[in-house]
């Protein structure tokens, strides 16, 4: 593939939203020793991608301009680095592109072998391209941060999942129901039936007073909250938590960090835990296997060809996606 060109979208500086993304022809990347080169069939956008463009990860990301955004990709391996053992050309895969190098919004991308999972050919790439960031975050929140056992063997827990119609939330509802949980979820009125169909036991419209107060319709106190929406002061969570209730905040604000510190300092039994995704290929494989077994699915908000990826980018920035926004090559 050396010296061949591919189509990609990149931005040259901070800001600009969807119109900051420019169509370009750039060299197809070459895989390093421990990387695979994937010809992409699908990719997905996460709020993280456009938050980087908005300078919210400065000075860490992006490393340099121009930058090809997006980390979540699915496709077929076309070349492997000399040290790669698990994959070969022709394998169908899903992967997490390093956010430091970037590269998912393109026809080809390189991914570390350790951040790649096999995908059965019969599962469409679009079903898997949403899994890396959103699926892994939901999995990490449930299993690591809260300690839910997805084989259903743990103690029964009452869980609240906010923004359950979003990328992370819709995976979190499905995964939580594999464990021994009662799930209360929040979403907009138009998505209540969808979120129930994903397994939520009770669903609150976030625009109603009870929804805004996060009050369980059946009066349950939450042992844990996976907080995928933004905002909400600690005073909203506190009365709804059980004695040792834990709020896992995936978009912690500065006041949430203060609450985290204060709760620690005062030895509060209730906790707020900020979560940062640590992506792992073996967990990605676990999620792909659940999709294969029919236990997890990706709700697709909309699909955009790479030639019109700006519209999908704008839709994500708008903040009202139901499930995942997918780009197809
Ligand atoms: N810490 C980490 O490592 C990590 C990893 C992944 C994501 N995140 C962050 O987590 C957040 C969620 O990500 P995502 O991919 O799930 O976002 P998303 O897919 O863009 O979420 C959109 C959904 O959220 C719903 N929503 C918005 N505000 C709500 C509210 N107050 N109550 C209930 N539902 C609400 C929207 O419903 P309506 O359309 O009805 O308004 C929409 O369906 C983002 O801020 C993202 O950056 C962090």
Automatic annotation (TrEMBL):
CDD domains: MDR1 (cd08267). Gene3D superfamilies: Medium-chain alcohol dehydrogenases, catalytic domain, NAD(P)-binding Rossmann-like Domain. One of its GO terms (molecular function) is oxidoreductase activity. It comes from the Eukaryota. SMART domains: PKS_ER. Residues 16-327 form the Enoyl reductase (ER) domain. PANTHER family: ZINC-TYPE ALCOHOL DEHYDROGENASE-LIKE PROTEIN C16A3.02C. This is Enoyl reductase (ER) domain-containing protein. It comes from Lupinus angustifolius. The lineage of its organism: Eukaryota, Viridiplantae, Streptophyta, Embryophyta, Tracheophyta.
